[in-house]
Amino acid sequence: MATRQNIESVLIEKRVFSPPPTFAARARLKQSEREALQQRAASDYEGFWADLARQHLAWLKPFTQTLDQANAPNYRWFADGELNVSANCLDRHLAERADKPAIVFEGEPGDTRSLSYRELLAEVSRLANALRSLGLQAGDRVVIYMPLVPEAIVAMHACARIGAVHSVVFGGFSAISLKDRIEDAGARLLITADGGWRGGQIVELKSAADKALSLGCPTIEHSVVLRRTGQEIPMQPGRDLWWHELVPSQSPVCKPTPVGAEHPLFLLYTSGSTGSPKGIQHASAGYLLGAKLTSEWVFDLRDDDVFWCTADVGWVTGHSYVAYGPLAAGATLVMYEGAPMFPDGGRFWQTCQAHGVTIFYTAPTAIRALMKLGDAIPQAYDLSKIRLLGTVGEPINPEAWVWYHRVIGREQCPIVDTWWQTETGAIMISPLPGITATKPGSCTQPLPGINVDIVDDNGVAVTAPDAGGYLVIKKPWPSMLRTIWGDNDRYLSTYWEKFQGRYYVAGDSAHRDADGYYWIMGRIDDVLNVAGHRLGTMEIESALVAHPKVAEAAVVGQQHEIKGESVFAYVVLNGARPAGADATALSDELRRWVAEQLGAIAKPDTIRFADNLPKTRSGKIMRRLLRSIARNEPITQDLSTLENPAIIEQLRGEAAIESNPRRSR
Ligand code: WTA
């Protein structure tokens, strides 16, 4: 479906948007520089990356080896060098911009706070000292489960400062998801908060954390709890420590621990097509290099910019373009805690106006939701300072692109549609805003040094324009994932097996037009992209079958006007198939159940009960068929192997309609 949508899009929206001349004239990266970079990467790939790593990162011990391929595809970059990521983002700015705001924060209730680079460094150092006082050492894992407040960034950097490995768990995930991630990581410490604000409500983080710890998590020794909402919460003596009792008394000076370039900086769990979420493991130097370079190249960051990436730090976008890249680049970033529509649809634009945002980066799902509210809302705010717009997370439909360009960008701002993944660490395919002419719906071309291609099932490059295939990356790059935490075999099989280790397989399909522009068509595996967030169908199915009444479940994606995709679940019960009010009640119960198991984002929008699921002779669920039914598409699959063809009616939901007396024959 995504394929057809995109191809149709090309037909609908053929306009090409050149960078505005005034933007191009001032851009950090000009065409001649891009060409020089591309030539250097083509003629001396390792030299290209080594130069950039020396120019952009502050090393405590210089590296002598650039790329180590001895254990490919477990690549290592700059491996004999040492550095500290937090020092690269904070200490190194003290000479030039100590008093420049690093973070301008706005809470959902309207409270605001600004932290200069000097203040942020002091806060990070205090927490780092506190972590050391709790006995944490380099390599220990710390899980961070927090609202989107400056302390979340402080926590990430405090870990980096002492070489501890953080794993941020999005605050919207349930207690059970939190527990699974804590246990997989073997974390010693949990950093959380009493709660956070979202949509005028309190997100009960501490109670979810308590539940997670009560279910297991034997490796956790302490949890550090930030007071954010101020509501009463129970504290377990000995285990739970208030941030405000532990941190302020610490010294604001903390010597950063030098770590090897390959030392893991963080784990971030993300959904795959099978099994439980995988802990994507990133290294220190290569990751930071990717985040910093792309912040400068793609977002054209300069000292007077105010950069707002709306992502939560629970996702990779919030790692690379909130917590690390912009700070490494010395930028001022805006951070907003709450829901985009609270108290009304003007919140984003009001925030842009209030803080003088110059660069705004968000997801297509948010753009579509805001577009639906009409032009008058954004037009009521002064958005004239915005000079660059970006999108990430899923393909953007041309209608939303054009609206974003016209209404938010006043037809004066380039739009960078950035393709990348948790695994790639940094943006891989994107326009360069002062150089690339953009086409609505295309992420355009790979960045210098990134070798992307489209191949067929046999790994042969697809060269015909507009022919689809697997999106692959042909050479290792510094910010790539290093492995899956605790499961290197899964790393090898998920990303490298398909083409015998020659190419990294992104899991997306794509096509390239006659101008060499890339168009992402969507996931090829059983991963859904709901509101820009990855969800594995398997995870949701496992959650459903964990319910005592459920015998079997199959989950597919259905198109959704705002979220891009929504979760559609077919469910077979242990007992009889419910109808009418019983079906509605059970449907609600199962939706709540999934939210409790995984988090509200995984809640199915639709649940359809059936007597059984369509299967192939080998017993595999016919997912393509289920997808066609969910999407009301014509069924093109061969149904001859189906045991009970009447099931199709049920799956379509027609049985219910037939039982409606007014329609019965
Ligand atoms: C999708 C988010 C089209 C894609 C940074 C990818 C996109 C998955 C784009 C990664 C884009 C991300 N155009 N599709 N600009 N950006 N995607 O790991 O399917 O949460 O594989 O990383 O999102 O999602 P993840």
In brief:
It contains 23 helices and 30 strands.
What do these coordinates show?
By secondary structure, the protein is α/β, with parallel strands linked by helices. The strands form 8 sheets. Strands 12-11-8-6-7-14-15-23 form an 8-stranded mixed beta sheet, sandwiched between helices. A 7-stranded mixed beta sheet has the order 5-4-17-16-18-19-20, with helices on both faces. The protein is 33% helix and 22% strand. It is built from 23 helices and 30 strands. It has 2 domains: 21-70 and 87-429 and 436-460 and 470-505, ANL, N-terminal domain (Rossmann fold, 3-Layer(aba) Sandwich); 527-658, GMP Synthetase, Chain A, domain 3. The site of 5'-O-[(S)-ethoxy(hydroxy)phosphoryl]adenosine has 22 residues, from helix 13, strand 20, strand 24 and strand 25.
Record the SSE blueprint.
Layout: H1 2-12, H2 21-26, H3 31-43, H4 45-56, E1 67-68, E2 76-77, E3 82-83, H5 85-89, H6 94-97, E4 101-106, E5 112-116, H7 117-133, E6 141-145, H8 150-162, E7 165-168, H9 175-185, E8 189-193, E9 196-198, E10 201-203, H10 205-215, E11 222-226, E12 240-242, H11 243-246, E13 259-260, E14 264-270, E15 278-283, H12 285-299, E16 306-309, H13 316-328, E17 332-336, H14 347-355, E18 359-362, H15 364-372, H16 376-379, E19 388-392, H17 398-408, E20 415-418, E21 452-455, E22 468-473, E23 483-484, H18 488-495, E24 504-512, E25 518-523, E26 527-530, E27 533-536, H19 537-545, E28 550-560, E29 564-573, H20 580-597, E30 606-610, H21 623-630, H22 647-652, H23 654-658
Parallel strand pairs: 4-17, 6-7, 6-8, 7-14, 8-11, 11-12, 16-17, 16-18, 18-19, 19-20, 29-30
Antiparallel strand pairs: 1-2, 3-13, 4-5, 9-10, 14-15, 15-23, 21-22, 22-24, 24-25, 26-27, 28-29
Helix pairs in contact: 3-4, 7-8, 9-10, 12-13, 15-17
Bound molecules: 5'-O-[(S)-ethoxy(hydroxy)phosphoryl]adenosine (WTA).
5'-O-[(S)-ethoxy(hydroxy)phosphoryl]adenosine binds at residues 270, 315-317, 392-395, 417-422, 443, 506-508, 520, 523, 529, 534.
